[in-house]
Design brief:
By secondary structure, the chain is mainly α. It is built from 5 helices and 2 strands; from the N terminus they run βααβααα. Strands 1-2 form a two-stranded antiparallel sheet.
């Protein structure tokens, strides 16, 4: 495989457990005031997508490690799952970059940013969850 990705034994129980945490995060996002906490919501949405991609890798029998782990997750999805179009892959990467600015530079996101993207973010989440659901059967 590629550098930064190792083969592991798929673990459905661990995947289900992470998925439960993701669902809890999604529930939390729904009750947060978007006008007041748009940066936090953006960060949480990225984390949800990142965790879902990690579950896909886990169920495929892979794990990322080392520098650039998040970028590698996105590259994996782009290479292996053609359900995601170029725009969706770019959106995930844009969320990654924005999340890093929030986490490391104290960057504030305008609520319009997340409002513009929320529909597409939810589409990505639904696609990832469908992939996971099929793998858990």
């Amino acid at each position: 495989m590629e550098e930064g990705i190792i083969k592991i034994t798929p673990d459905k129980e661990k995947a289900k457990s992470i998925l439960k945490m993701v669902d809890a995060t999604i529930e939390m996002i729904k009750v947060i005031d978007i006008a007041k906490f748009s940066s936090h919501i953006t960060k949480e949405y990225y984390d949800v997508i990142r965790e879902l991609i990690s579950i896909v890798l886990l169920l495929d029998g892979y794990k990322t490690y080392g520098e650039g782990v998040h970028k590698r997750l996105i590259e994996y999805i782009k290479a292996k799952y053609h359900e995601f179009n170029e725009y969706e892959v770019l959106l995930i990467d844009d969320l990654r970059i924005t999340r890093n600015k929030i986490a490391y530079d104290g960057f504030f996101v305008d609520k319009e940013y997340i409002e513009r993207k929320i529909k597409d973010i939810n589409k990505i989440i639904i696609k990832l969850k469908s992939i996971i659901k099929l793998k858990l059967l």
